[in-house]
């Protein structure tokens, strides 16, 4: 029987990779895990030293993601700087259609949360310090060769190159590193011809823990409550969809002019826009890999599927997929199977496929529906928004989608726990 340097190599130590490492450490502590991360790690970067920044990038966490982080023992710390979304307001600019969701109507304290990416990373790192997970940073996975029962991975560490063997490689470094293509996976890409502009903004009126999804003729615009988790404030996280031409125009504007342009398109539901922070932007592309596994290798997160941010489901979908993969690792260990066996990874793909296909269809259909300017389509979608607001069944379905409760979610079975089900519907 072949011997391996480690059991699992995770290429990428960002939010997806670090969460996967922690979940494996919690659920399958017998597995040796090595995370390979391109950026150096600072031993001083811990939650205790965290100071929120106005320009911090953030992620929308669905209620279902909170449940996963609770299972990982991470939520209590994360919640210290996670702003709750208690209300969601969806509207179509210039038309009467609108729908509103309220957490209290669904027996929840929140529909979701908004957390700074850096804060989430620090919380994950704090928890990982108490596990046996090994880190190689700064380092990158540059190639992989199949071997009996596993893979041999080539690592680049500065000017040095070395190899490590493992039973399985998980690619969790996003869709831009090039590793996915280097390993022979072919993604399907559909460009939306749009860009996402990301920034934090301040308004004269309090957000009252409300997330706004505003569909405009130029594309969707989202404002998510940001800042204190205990007191409704005036800061929101903006995701603004713009064409190439419009993006170029906006980036040339002064901050005051950006606020005026934003005001014209969003309206006055939050009063006057008083400040906009550092703007980041990236092109919007629907990217999927139809076969994200092969013997010894699995793609997860944005490496497997990158969505339009319209519904804020990207990381939440990835998180559900990670838990499904961890559950398959646990079952493989219990049944004497290799964690990189195609039978094991194929089971993960089969279970996760329906979730990501449904989520992709949901997000993509919103873009196509609200991107249609024809009068009959406008009338139909406005009627649909009103219907969502008036029909309890339809509204509950929409709320469950927004809360990330529509897909399969694996339950972490820690040693000593014996849940009645290990895979269940939320």
UniProtKB/TrEMBL annotation:
One of its GO terms (biological process) is ubiquinone biosynthetic process. The keyword Flavoprotein applies. This is 2-octaprenyl-6-methoxyphenol hydroxylase. The keyword Nucleotide-binding does not apply. It comes from Marinobacter gudaonensis. Its cofactor is FAD. Belongs to the UbiH/COQ6 family. It holds the Pfam family FAD_binding_3. Pathway: Cofactor biosynthesis; ubiquinone biosynthesis. It comes from the Bacteria. Keywords: FAD, Flavoprotein, Monooxygenase, Oxidoreductase. InterPro entries: FAD-bd, FAD/NAD-bd_sf, UbiH/COQ6, UbiH/COQ6_monooxygenase. Residues 5-361 form the FAD-binding domain. NCBIfam families: PRK05732.1, Ubi-OHases. One of its GO terms (molecular function) is 2-octaprenyl-6-methoxyphenol hydroxylase activity.
